[in-house]
Amino acid sequence: MLIGELAKKTGCDVETIRYYERERLLSAPQRSASGYRHYNAEQLGELNFILHCRSLGMSLADIRNLAAFKADHEHDCEDINLLIDQQIAKVHQQAEALRLLEQQLLALRDKCHDSHAAADCGILQTLVEAAEGEPCVCHTPFGQDNHGHSHDHDHAAKKNGRTQKGRP
Amino acid sequence: MLIGELAKKTGCDVETIRYYERERLLSAPQRSASGYRHYNAEQLGELNFILHCRSLGMSLADIRNLAAFKADHEHDCEDINLLIDQQIAKVHQQAEALRLLEQQLLALRDKCHDSHAAADCGILQTLVEAAEGEPCVCHTPFGQDNHGHSHDHDHAAKKNGRTQKGRP
DNA sequence: CTTGACCCTGTAGCGACTACAGGGTGTGCA
DNA sequence: TGCACACCCTGTAGTCGCTACAGGGTCAAG
Ligand SMILES: [Zn+2]
Ligand SMILES: [Zn+2]
Ligand SMILES: [Zn+2]
Ligand SMILES: [Zn+2]
């Protein structure tokens, strides 16, 4: 089986297959005289394993570990459980963060209904005022009476949407 | 105000501030004779605006657009609304995807309760069998009777956890 | 006059791909 | 046999939003 055929069978891009091999996730296949990769059923399984784990949101590092556990039959499965549990925790946290984000965005969106000049747009006004230190609908959920100065939403805490590694 | 002071005031890393300047999100500050950046209140506002938008999960490209709308007072705010609506949609989709992921992971986790050898681990067995084409708890939600061969979960469709750009 | 805290530029790295450029191979058809 | 065309190869660079140096310069205090 050549790489293109494997790609078709698995739905994985050819370049991604080569990438997985470079990253030592996929074992190096046999080569024809001209250097073409030839895959067998075992490697088809390997790739499907990787893709399955990826579809569960696992990192390539996690998948590498999982594959190592799979190879080491004696290994206690405690580590597997830990890995999955951590994955669940990670996914859960991210989902919660996004849920909050959606609420914040909806609150902001509610500041503008009709079409009008940008200068008068409630959304833009909210953003500009927030940058000047005023409270904002998005970061002051609803019941907080910090109606003036001195409020700090956590810009620093979550620098980018997906990884918050600063403070737990 | 030197860059370190601005960093402290905003909670933004010094290197990130320089990065925003390189990316033309932050206007270039005045320089002292020795090349030190000196910031004023206006640029403090600019940075806070950026950080506020980032905390709402917006991309730097979106923020650049938003800043352009802010500068162009005549501009109709329709585009702002569109931008926010798209952001809401994106966040919503990602949140839903993560919710599903969590369910899938929990179903998989349920395949192992006690500690034992990896060879007998229900989690690992599930993953290996799925790679061979069997149905799996994680990708066959619960009521589907595809109990044998010929099932395809959508490995190809969502290549990585965060961006599914293939089919909407 | 030295120490140490700050500042500068430029470059490389992260993760998980994706997209070429620039070439080689293999098959079918006239 | 010649040629088109689909496929394969390697290697490098780009994506995004930072982060982390290396290797230097500046400035105020002691
Ligand atoms: Zn508006
Ligand atoms: Zn806000
Ligand atoms: Zn187990
Ligand atoms: Zn599955």
From TrEMBL, chains A, B:
Keyword entries, A-Z: Coiled coil, DNA-binding
Occurrences of domain HTH merR-type (ranges): 1-69
Keyword DNA-binding in record: yes
Biological process, per Gene Ontology: positive regulation of DNA-templated transcription
Positions with biased composition (Basic and acidic residues): 146-157
CDD domains, A to Z: HTH_CadR-PbrR (cd04784)
PROSITE patterns noted in UniProt: HTH_MERR_2
Comp. bias intervals (Basic residues): 158-168
Database matches in SUPFAM superfamilies: Putative DNA-binding domain
GO molecular function, one term: metal ion binding
Classification via Pfam families: MerR_1 (PF13411)
Residues covered by region (Disordered): 146-168
Coiled coil, from the record: 84-111
Protein name, as recorded: MerR family transcriptional regulator
